[in-house]
Amino acid sequence: MTNTIDAAAASPPQPTTPRTPTAKLVAIGLLGGMLSGLLGVGGGTIMVPLLVFWAGYAQRDAHATSLGAIIPIAIVSAATLGAGAHIDVRAAVFLTIGAVIGARYGAKALARADDRKLQWLFGCFLLAAAFLMLVQG
């Protein structure tokens, strides 16, 4: 009895995003990084809409690409901020534990999500966050 691997399952997913010019991606990263460091928002809050509307990415690919950029952004922002502000290390550790567990489930859901529904859900999330910031701030 031989083990066979389904060719479709073994092949990597085909990119559905256009070949975006490097300068445009750097500009999106620059804006996302600046606002992430300044406002404490995940770079995805800025980068995902820019990747979709300015760079022509599919919604799911924009989310996945933004996720790939989060770790370096967070490291640089935390290291820079840590020199002049208090980082609650205990809270950061517990946030990380929850986030690592949640990210696994979120990434699985992202892989199956319909682009249009994902765009709608992300837009609603941004609107709700903006509303809460305005009324509670």
From TrEMBL:
Family indicated by similarity: Belongs to the 4-toluene sulfonate uptake permease (TSUP) (TC 2.A.102) family.
Annotated segments matching region Disordered: 1-20
Source species: Conexibacter woesei (strain DSM 14684 / CCUG 47730 / CIP 108061 / JCM 11494 / NBRC 100937 / ID131577)
Protein's cellular compartments: Cell membrane; Membrane
Recorded superkingdom: Bacteria
Main localization (coarse): membrane
Name by which UniProt lists this protein: Probable membrane transporter protein
Topology of this chain in the membrane: Multi-pass membrane protein
Sorted UniProt keywords: Cell membrane, Membrane, Transmembrane, Transmembrane helix
Name of a matching Pfam family: TauE
Chain ranges passing through the membrane: 25-52, 64-83, 89-106, 118-135
One Gene Ontology CC term in the entry: plasma membrane
InterPro entries for the chain: TM_pro_TauE-like, TSUP/Inactive_protease-like
